[in-house]
Amino acid sequence: MASLLFSPPALPCSRSRCSQARSTPRRRPRAGGAALFRGKSDRRKAPGGRRLVIHFALAESDSPKALEQEALLPLLQEIADSLDLPADYLEKLPQDLRLDLNDAAFDLSNGPVFDECGQELGALFLSLTRSWEKAETSTSCSIASKLPLLHNSLKDSVKSAIGKRLLSAGRRFQGMGQYGEGELQRIARAMTKAGKVLSATSVTSADQKRIPEARMLKFGDLQLELTPEKANIGAAIGFIFGILSWGLSQGIQSIPESSLQYANDNALLLAKSLRGALLTMCYSSAILSSITSVGLVFLGRQLGNPKDK
């Protein structure tokens, strides 16, 4: 069978239109053309909308809080990596650098560290600084490796205080100069960088607590926080010790030299020298105790009235 195909009759058209249709090739519609058109229409409807969104995004990305949240964990990890020192590194430090290391430990953990930094990080700072004072390199590296794990437990109310401590300790490490392969300067840079980010953290009024400034006395490994109560107790102890020293000196002086019998002249000279030394020591103790008591009383008043500082 043969089938006939008939094409539909062509519609009449003018010569100009037909020639234009033949000469002009068809263009394929580009993908996304409608989207571009819609984008243009949206910009016409809200000419300032796109500009407002971009400005808000830039403001949010440049805020200290956003930058601190994004960069906090890498900064803590950088501190931990910088404290991963070679074996026996702290033990081999010269004596002057050991003293600077003790100063850095004091700056990092002095004062009310638990109140300012929290329980977990305060305990970590204390353990870390004790390992520095004892020059235990392996212990220091082990403790420092736990620092990034406390990333999520840091509150905004303690970040500023932590940053100030890191900045102070970083300045100590920076003052040690170049030693070895630059390990001390890497520690200084890591602590300073993290300290600047943390100290720039804004604390809300709800989380902010005014922590009174504490004065510390350090005797080797012993740290003593000065408070008005402790100052008054020390003044009372000094006053009692001064009275006892004064009474002892009066008792020694009241004994006449003629009442004692000595075997020879050498024994007499020895007894007189001992009597003079005891009197000098007792009078000096009494005077120093009285001065110390008066000073502690004034210190207690000054600590009790921080506005007068």
Strand content: under 5%
Helix content, binned percent? 55-70%
Mean pLDDT over the residues: 74
The assigned structural class equals mainly alpha
Low-confidence stretches: 1-63, 203-209
Q: Oligomeric form of this entry?
A: single chain
Q: Largest sheet, if any?
A: 2 strands, antiparallel
* SSE pattern: HHHHHHHHHHEEHH
Question: What's the arrangement of strands in the largest beta sheet?
Answer: 1-2
Gyration radius over CA: 40 Å
Determine the N-to-C terminus distance: 117 Å
Number of strands: 2
Annotation field: number of helices: 12
- What global shape is seen? elongated
Number of structural units classed as domains: 2
Q: Which tags fit this structure?
A:
single chain, 309 residues, mainly alpha, two-stranded antiparallel ribbon, 12 helices, disordered N terminus, transmembrane helix, transmembrane, membrane
